[in-house]
Amino acid sequence: MEIGLQTKFSHLGLFIAHRRLWWVGVLIGAVGVQLVEPVWGVFECDNSENAEHEHLLRELTMDLSLDGKIAIVTGGSAGIGRGISEALVDEGCHVCICSRHEGEVRQAAKELEDRSADDVHTLGVVADLTNEADRQKLVDETVRTFSTVDILVNNAGTLSAGETLEDWRSLFELNLFAVVDLVDRVVPYMQEKSWGRIINISSENGEQPYPDMIPYSATKGALNNFSKGLSKRHAEDGILVNMVSPAFIETPLVEAMMEEAAEEQGITKEEAVQQFLENNRPNIELKRPGRSDEVGALVAFLASEKASFINGANYRIDGGSVASV
Q: How far apart are the first and last CA of the chain?
């Protein structure tokens, strides 16, 4: 299909907003998992306007020199993790995603494979990241399929409405301890090449805790502290460690929350979103939720050689939600 110059220019602003770092700037990704064998996708031609738009974005993408890199994205089958996985696949990475739900991770792996170049592959792994054996299985299957690990994106996380001691333990088990263990398991592969990227998906709550989310906020504050220390320990190994802190990103979970709020009050979902922004996130000056692809673009940049002098940094992608400088 021939795309005229005018059409390309009409999308240029969106491309810049997607792929250039200097303007880039829930809470939760699905809990990770593993399929014992690779889930290879089958290419299907899509002539829809949406597909044409996505093709144009990929055509104009900045070359981040990630071709052939091997990435693990925990919770990569949905939400923010899916946006990250798509961004890495678009940049030529082989990506291993995980989720506890086999059907979901198989479908996501196929869809990621469908959008990728012929020589880019995706592996789906079913695993519960609160289980030590499953964490080892995730790394083992990635290495067995792709030979190594270059990039680890710790995206999987959870939150809880409760504040019992057991609630605290459960949150720390996934949001922090699973991250610590996965880092320990992949760092040796990165040390072998003197190159690696670890990107931990935190939250605005790590810097700006909310009174109704104290346990969750504490896990993200701890994750930030751990990440900073890790960045100092492994810099000499050529391994860069950074954090990305989103706020109010459109994910299936957030969509469901907004739809429930709208139904309860007899208003539209769009009205529920604006109500939430006004009452709960007044500092989001853009007056809209963020998108998972906006988070993905930032993560892809931090995973690349373009970010070779960025280490131990926490990048907010929150529309201004965190009030402090």
A: 47
CB-CB contact of 90 with 297 (8 Å)? no
Q: Say which DSSP state 34 is in.
A: B
Q: What is the mean pLDDT of residues 302-316?
A: 98
The full length of the chain comes to 325
Q: Which residue has the tokens 């996985």?
A: 85
The helix or strand, by DSSP H or E, that contains position 288, with its residue range, turns out to be none
Element (H, E) at 71: strand 70-74
pLDDT digits (tens, 9 = 90+) for 12-68: 343 333 443 333 333 333 333 333 334 444 333 344 556 665 665 555 557 899 999
Residue 200: other Cβ atoms inside 10 A: 26
Q: Which amino acid is at 81?
A: G
Buried b vs exposed e over 303-324: b needs ≥16 C-beta within 10 Å?
A: bbebbeebbeebbbbbbebbee
Q: Is 216 a catalytic residue?
A: yes
Which SS3 state, helix, strand or coil, does residue 3 take?
A: coil
Residue with tokens 């946006």: 83
**Which amino acid belongs to residue 251?**
T
Average of per-residue pLDDT values in the chain: 86
Beta bridge partners of 315: 244
CATH superfamily of 34-41+67-248+289-317: NAD(P)-binding Rossmann-like Domain (3.40.50.720)
Q: How many CB atoms lie within 10 A of CB 49?
A: 8
Q: Which two tokens stand for residue 71?
A: 């990435």
Threshold 0.90, pTM exceeds: no
Rounded CA-CA distance 75/28 in Å is: 9
Please tell me which residue in 189, 210, 216, 315 is annotated as part of the active site: 216
pLDDT given for residue 325 in this prediction: 86
- 273 CB-contact burial (10 Å; exposed 0-12 / middle 13-18 / buried 19+): buried
Distance, in Å, from the CA atom of 95 to the CA atom of 268, rounded to the nearest integer, reads 37
